Records
---
Amino acid sequence: MSLNIHSHLQGISAFVHAVETGSFTAAAARMGVSKSATGKSVARLEERLGIRLLDRTTRSLNLTVEGRAYYQSCLKVLEELNAAETLLASRKRVVSGTLRINLPISFGRLFVMPVLKEVAEKNPDLNFDITFTDRQVDLVEEGIDLVVRLGDPGDHASLIGRRIGTQRSIICAAPAYLDRRGRPASVDELGNHDCLAFAKDSRPLPWAVCGPDGTVRAFVIQPRHTISHGEALRDATVNGLGLAYLSTWLATDDLRSGRLEVVPIATPAEDVPITALWPRSRDLAPKVRVVVDALVEAFRPIAVADARP
């Protein structure tokens, strides 16, 4: 009987992964098995059920009508199993297993990695599988347990989010650049300066500035240079290439040392949220909770710090 149960669950798992990834090759990579083993598991499942679940072509997999209904049932079964396991783990208070985390490139390296190092040292049975990207990933499709997101976290019914802090940004430049080109006091003067833009998805992001009445607006700059890496943008600013709109967590050390100077153009005290997101099915998992709690605690001093020297 146990062998049959194992075979059934193996077939269901292969089927769900194949649907979510769109191919047997990607499903096999996620499961850590061969492509042929994945295909055979789904084929045995279809044979046992007596129905075709997937229409196969050389380029894609498509759910049949029966397959779509069965897929929804499988999701419920797997979610119940996962919830039962995480509940038991929560009661045992054991932080173990592998946590798959996706992080923004600069913020993840500079801020999150030191926190993860401390968490790993305190939890020897916990392993991390960490990826870095500034694009918005799909946690369910890409098999990620936890993501840290800068800006709008999005509205996803399948995810749970917790704000770990708020990012503040300021307009700044190297003192040598400002001595040479002048210190702008309003956005109207920015047109006379070399502005450096951070690019996301190949598009320069606007700067959030405050008007005389305190209202916040997105100011679309005409950048001289566009840079898609946060630390490279900071380096370019420190080296006098122009003005930049930098996050305080990225610029604070340079502001304190005098390598950068804040430009007297008002920016909002709170720019964008910094959020941790995870699938609802991982809600009670200790490995998720311990990392999120550590991030919230670690970010508090930076969230309220004024980066102005």
---
Amino acid sequence: MLLTSKSYKFIQIFHMSQKMAIAWLHSSMEMEIEKIVRTINDHPFPNQPLRPALYSQLPQSILSAPFVEKVLGNLFGAHSNGLKAYELFKYCLDSDFYTPSSGAFEKTLHILTRMRYFDEAWELVKRIKRTHPSLLTLKSMSIMLSRIAKFQSYEETLEAFERLQTDIYSGRKFGTNEFNVLLRAFCTQRQMKEARSVFSRMHYDFIPNIKTMNILLLGFKESGDITAVELFYHEMVRRGFKPNNVTYNIRIDAYCKKGHFGDALRLLEEMECAGCSPTMETITTLIHGAGLVRNITKAKHLFEEIHKRSLQLDTGAYNALLSSLIRSKDMISATTLMDQMERRNIEHDNVTYHNMFLGLMRSNGIDGVSTLYTKMVRKDFVPKIRTVVMLMKLFCQNDRVDMGLDLWNYLVKKGHCPHGHALDFLVTGLCARGRVEESFNCTKQMLERGRLVSERVFQMLERFLVQMGELHRLEELKLMINKLKSLLPPPD
């Protein structure tokens, strides 16, 4: 018995040591990723080439697929300049130690196309075709086409699809899946006239399936036309397609978003009668819909039903209930629910924080927001753009410009390139208080990271710098802006 007890203790200690070692490795990797992201974002662009810095900071011997994918993911989230991310990925591709993953390739492609570097994006897919053709997936095709559909014309999008078919994905027969990717490109941009045109022209060549119909149905839902959703639903049924979970989820969401919660509940019953089991997405959508019509009792009931339906609670379900509580102005219950998420090890994501900040702004004002902001920073959580801009506006327009500057410095320290709208609010707030030096430094940081500043920011700084006789600084900004304009795509 004594031996068994000792053995048990030894196993416990061994497992604990393993967990500590894994946690340490994870923490060490996160610190290294943050350091590389910061190095790339802080690098003066385009005054100096990035590759020498990568050679000194990122030895090729330590490159691994998960590491590079994480760095590129952070660069994507940090809104880094696309050419810098591309330079990093090319540096990795040139290494004998590195085999690229589809995730790393897709993130690089996403960063480039988001900034409309389409020439570089085509150059990248051509290189991948030569060296790693297995990385050319439906997802990479979708990234390319959806951005072209957003920034270019209908004809150019169709030409891009043809180019992918004949040049990049040559040797692969395009079928329904590729057709669906093209349709999704238009539907995600709410270009339903173009999507219907493509469907009418090409559905004889590419036989549509239920996924095709759901993509179009989703497009009508995203365009906000509930009548079009229902008309197309009946059309797909007439064509012989049997609705599935996705079909019902789209229709339920359409009704919820329009405030027709009773109709959404009716569809839930219809869904179950048709033998389609509701998913977490179904229940989460309904909880959110209940919140939109201020039916907090039903929202709570649906939330409690999740366990009874043998579904797994996740961040999305908590966020839906949290949003419902906030809409009902019950911030005490919302705060309690947020604490419950923490106790149950369910992550707070950007939606959690954004909704809580919105609720606190309406109820507790700036003080409540300040408390949650401090807590968020302590947890090393980096909010997304819309939350950053919302917080920066709140801080700078409520005489808390120091908190705005703190948020800016926090993002820069984490390797992020804050959004231009955030800089607009910060520079306005700082200049209004005579803090031109700090305004100049933040603007310079933005430009050094390869991102242009707005005309409003430049004109404001120009006025103050001329008044102060700091013409050399004004000239420095002009040079940086002109150099960037020669490299960056023109504004929309």
---
Amino acid sequence: MSTDSIFSSVESEQRWVLAMEKNFPQQHVLDIDFDIPCCVFRVSKILTEAKPEAYAPQHLGLGPYHHLRPELYIMQKQKLAAVRKFLGLEKVQKFRQVVEDLVQREPVLRACYDQYLDLDIQTLAWILAIDGLYLVQFLKNYPEMEHLAGDILMLENQIPVILLKKILRVLELAPNDQNDYSLFEEFETLCQAHSPLRLNKQRAIIGDVSQAHLLNRMYYLIVNNRGIQEEEYVSMFSAAVTRIGLNDVVDSVQFLAEQGLPGAGIAGQILSVVKKVPWDKILGLFKKGGPDEENPDIGFEEKNFYLPVIRVTATTEVVLRNLVAYEAATTEPGSTLELAEYVDLMCGIIDSSKDVEILRNEGIIESELPDEEIARIFNGIDKSTKKNDNKSSIEEAVDNVNSRYGNLLSVKVKRFLKRYGYALLKILGVLITITVLLLLTLQAFCSVFGCGRWFGKITAQSQNLLFSY
């Protein structure tokens, strides 16, 4: 077989032909929807190159992409034991019926995955039956298996809801559509425990159970979280942006003082006193409130930059990365990538543990992890979004902050000093050198030829030149 082909053998090619034939049955099949959209994606190499372990499960493989990985297959016995225990003697006898039912829906199984699955349909059906039922029992026994949550929430490890529903119905664990909601309630238990951002709790949003899988459900509840009241927002502009800008100016003035610039030392002392003034509390007196209920979680009004509270745990990096990967895989070209832009914003704000400390003190970051670890997480995530013609609300908020920040006097001074300070120092140094040379030359000339008739009598007192007439 050609190295450019998806086929590894003649048998592989025959399996492909059989799979294609199932998409065009000789007689119409009423209960099979052949237009199932793809929902489980391989993460692009652009994202996985930096940190592959954040996208590939490390302990538990679910579905055809990772079930058969040798290093993960050690979990197979535990999977089978958990499934048998969950079903009990009565239900376990119907498990083969689940497999056969999935076999009859081969086009649906394959359509859920974005890559061609070079597996016999029997193999594929057994993988999805075992892993699908394992996921169901995991959700029902979640607190006892929390250490596997990171793997469960990875994009490539998702089991489509359409298959989970079929498994539950065949086993009579969910006999009608009303019980579909119980599956999403279990989704939400896991989402609440591991979502970095707050989830929407409105009935109209929660009642929509059209999401394709667990990770899709978490993403949906995050990006549709609107209408948060003012007290749930945290203002960081006065406490962070203003303070950071003033710190930079003080540092710049101190640098000039160390270089010997006249007056810089006194200016530095004055700014050091100004720096200690509680500007966050003073500016807070002029705050007129947060964004209205129609605005997204991130906004900027007057002196206040609003960010949603983010809870950082041991699984946060994996969850954020996979949510961004899912968004990238499903968003249409030209659309705004809200979650990716938010993650990029946080990565831009956080450079060091000092930044984390500011955000933690302002109530924006909630975590039991040390500041250094949180900074490492955000520093390790590369920028994932590209500029497009349509600006999102996040981009507009950031543009407003940059405009306001750029107009601050302290920032203008800092930028002026950064751009021209070194050149001014060089020019000043040259002028001082020329002046000293001229004075020394004048002193030498006068000591030899005398300058009284032009400048009066020159005397030296206390190392200073005093001119008298």
